[in-house]
Amino acid sequence: MKILFVVTSHDELGNTGHKTGFWVEEFAAPYYKFTDAGYEVVVATPKGGQAPIDPNSEAPSAQTDATKRYYDDAKVQDVIAHTHKLTDVNASDFDAVFYPGGHGPLWDLANDPRSAQLILDFYNSGKLVGAVCHAPGAFKNVKFDNGESFVKGKKVTGFSNTEEAAVKLTDVVPFLVETELQNLGANYSKVDDWGIYVVEDGLLITGQNPASSESVAEKMITRLK
Predict the structure, then answer these.
(1) Coil, strand or helix at 146
(2) What is the pTM of this model?
C-alpha cells in the first residue's frame, strides 16, 4: 500500500524575516509509523524538490525519538530533498493521503488548487485523508461541487488559538486554524494545549498538535488494515 504525504513548499514566516516550513516531528513520526508497518510513502510538495524545514522544529525541546531517527537517516533526508510536484501525483495511485503541519501550509497549501483537488479526489474515492496541527488549514478552500466547504458539519481538530498564542504567532499567521475551521462550519474540538488529541469523522482524521501526529498515523493504519 502507498501513502501520499503532502508537505509545504513555503519557507517565509510572514513579514517577520524568519523562516518556516514543515515541522520535522509531524513528518518523521508518521513517516516511520507508516514505513515500519510496511507502507510505501511518497512525498509531494507544490514546488517539488527540497521541502523547507521549520527551524523552530529543530530546537532541542522539539526533538523526539522519531526526529532523532530522521536526522540519522540519510535516505529519508534525500526524500525530503527531492519531493515530487503535486501536479505530478494522482489520488488513484495511493491508498490514503496525509498532511504534516508546520506553519508553512497556511500560506501555500491553504490556497493551492491542486492540493484542494487531491483532497477531494481521495475523499470522493473512499480513501482516508489525514492532517495534523496546522495542516487542517489546507482544507480552507476545499469545496465540493455544490460549493459547500469540505469540512462543513465534520468533526475536526487542529492547532488551537491558545496554542498559536503560546508560540506568539497569532498576529503573524494569515489565519488561525481553529477560527477558520469554525468559520467553515466544521465541528471543531480541542483539548488543553499540547495534549494528544485525534478526531475521526468518516474518512477524515485530524490531530491537534505535534504531540498528536503519531496517533493520527496509528489511527490511519488501523483503518487501512
Answers:
(1) coil
(2) 0.98
